[in-house]
What does this fold into?
Amino acid sequence: MIKEYIIDKDIVLKDFLNEKHLFSSLQKDIKKLNGQYLVNDQTVENWYKLHKGDILQIVFPTSTQGKNIKSVKGDFEILYEDSYLLIINKVNNLATIPTREHFNKSLANYVMSYYKIKGIVANIHFINRLDYATSGIIMLAKNPYILTVMKEQKIIKKYLLETVGKIDNNSGEITGGIEKDPSSVIKRRMSTKFTNSRTTYEVLAKDNEKTLVLATLHTGKTHQLRLHFASINHPLIGDELYGKKTDDQILHLHSAYLEFNHPITQKLIKIKSLPKWLEQESFIS
It folds into this structure.
């Protein structure tokens, strides 16, 4: 990827990069992985002094992230794609990245195959991740620059979920501390010693047995929604870690809505998705 700027003042290149929030990690990648800074078609270093009217081109390298991910053919639903982003509707019970148990069967494996089949020169850069059991919207950047920009900007994330039992309130907020559970390599636990997580929610439908909720993540801690609703005695339906296993082995937790400004076009992007387990009509406005 090449990004171009027309310089509007005299400034040292390194200072210009910092003003544009091209973070030190990206600058190091450009240096180590054969990226380039071109000023008026001439290669320069980051200490070069830019002048008003100069044309700066930054040639971003293709990072080594994902190089070792095996290409495996697999189907997935694409919700949005352009030259910079790939947004997918992930199914339940699929690992996002390869693990010891799912080395050749993860979304990353499938995306790598898709890139090769389509002739797309890109590696695996997940902007957000979903647990193995969680379904819904997951987003990838096609180069490290887009990944860095997206990690720094605001993304609105909403989830549809169903809890065990009837939640009395029609809306609410759950906060608290989340930390690793020393008794497990997977589980997390709530802590009253600090606060590092926040969820707000709106009840969409309920009966005496279950409650359908639209929850907004304001922080992104591991297992946040699962823990938060378990902490108010309404664990998610199908949650084997913090509730009870169901016969269909489906966790009723789905990434249903993303909203963000496109990192290049600045166009407002809204992505919606509904889970297969949802019986009601769309509740997402």
Q: What stands out?
A: The two ends are 35 Å apart (CA to CA).
